[in-house]
Design goal:
The protein has helices at residues 2-41, 113-117, 261-264; strands at residues 74-80, 84-88, 96-98, 102-103, 106-107, 128-129, 138-142, 148-152, 155-156, 178-180, 222-227, 231-236, 243-245, 249-250, 253-254, 265-267, 284-288, 294-298, 301-302, 304-306, 324-326. The protein is of the alpha+beta class and 337 residues long. Among the domains are: 74-191, no CATH class; 222-326, no CATH class. Keywords: Lipoprotein, Signal.
Length: 337
């Protein structure tokens, strides 16, 4: 009897110890799983989607870290059917100003969540005035986090997160306080009335280029004009400037401007050899586009017109993005007079 009792007692003790070990193991697994779940989603369950981010430039990143603001690059002017002359960055995205900011002195009142929706335009050595933009209007603002923001006419410049393609102006008029920037820092034309803080536009703005001193010759489909800054450049039958795109190729001849690009840059039609004036006909040709249409080529490179040029003599597309250039008499980018 005594031996049997001892045997059952030993079995019970072993079962108790096994149970304690099992409980300790379960508790350890539970506590170690909790931190990893939080780490996976910063408070979300593991595997759940992260909050949507992005700025409309094709990435899906969250808001940029301090010092990572996207710079403006070579600024340009786009003529908008509703807003008139609109300032854009080097990629053609509309730049905006905020009524709650101040221009004298320049100060930004957009930070935190506001700066996520309206990313400030960074200012660096590569942010420069392109054709139609006065360099004297550009300035710099040091934000509270130490980053440098571009100012135009004293006004801090921003992009809008909902603008997903070059030429979008979805931020215009948002909240009654956000407006597209004109090249001189004032509000774009449609919002100009009632702007008591805006600096008046100069009488002779850089966006209105002089008329050509040698208009397109009668009947000519391709000729030269004397541009006051660029020298002799090629123009079409209407006196509109022709351009080359640096991303196109000459051998084999190929256009890399399609889809969104073609909304801003229109393929120039071929010309008749008998209607070329002042240009070596050997430079002039044509190429067939993927859709079967034919496009003028100059020096074995496709030629385009720019929708931002409103009048004969305008050359506002020259230098945009560092990849678009007018065409001189030799079929190359102009170097000026």
């Amino acid at each position: 009897m005594t031996t049997t009792t001892k045997r059952y007692g030993l079995v019970a003790l072993c079962l108790l110890l096994a149970g304690l070990v099992l409980m300790a193991t379960l508790n350890s697994s539970k506590s170690s799983a909790s931190p990893s779940t939080q780490a996976a989603g910063y408070g979300q369950a593991a595997g759940s989607p992260a909050p949507a981010g992005g700025y409309g430039y094709g990435d899906s990143s969250a808001s940029p870290a301090a010092g990572a603001m996207k710079p403006g690059g070579q600024l340009a002017v786009r003529m908008d059917a509703q807003l008139g002359a609109v300032l854009t960055d080097s990629q053609g995205f509309t730049l905006y100003r905020f009524d709650k900011d101040t221009a004298k002195p320049p100060a930004s009142n957009c930070s935190g969540g506001c700066a996520t929706t309206w990313p400030p335009v960074g200012n660096d050595a590569a942010t420069v005035a392109g054709t139609g933009v006065e360099a004297a209007k550009l300035g710099d603002l040091t934000r509270a986090d130490g980053t440098h923001q571009l100012t135009v006419g004293g006004w801090p410049a921003y992009r809008y997160a909902q603008d997903t393609a070059p030429g979008d102006t979805k931020g215009q008029g948002v909240g009654g306080t956000w407006f597209a920037l004109a090249p001189d820092g004032t509000k774009a034309k449609a919002a100009a009335s009632g702007d008591t803080q805006a600096t008046p536009a100069p009488a002779n703005t850089a966006t209105a280029m002089p008329q050509p001193t040698q208009p397109s010759q009668s009947g000519a489909q391709l000729s030269l004009m004397n541009h006051p800054q660029l020298g002799q450049i090629m123009v079409d039958a209407n006196g509109m400037t022709l351009y080359h795109f640096a991303k196109d190729t000459a051998w084999p001849m190929k256009s890399n401007c399609d889809a969104t690009c073609l909304k801003t840059w229109k393929p120039a039609p071929p010309v008749e050899a008998s209607k070329i004036k002042g240009i070596d006909p050997k430079l002039v040709g044509k190429m067939q586009r993927p859709d079967g249409s034919w496009q003028l080529s100059i020096n074995c490179t496709p030629a385009y017109t720019y929708t931002g040029d409103q009048n004969p003599g305008d050359a506002l597309g020259n230098g945009i993005g560092g990849v678009w250039s007018a065409i001189n008499a030799q079929g190359k980018a102009p170097t000026g007079k």
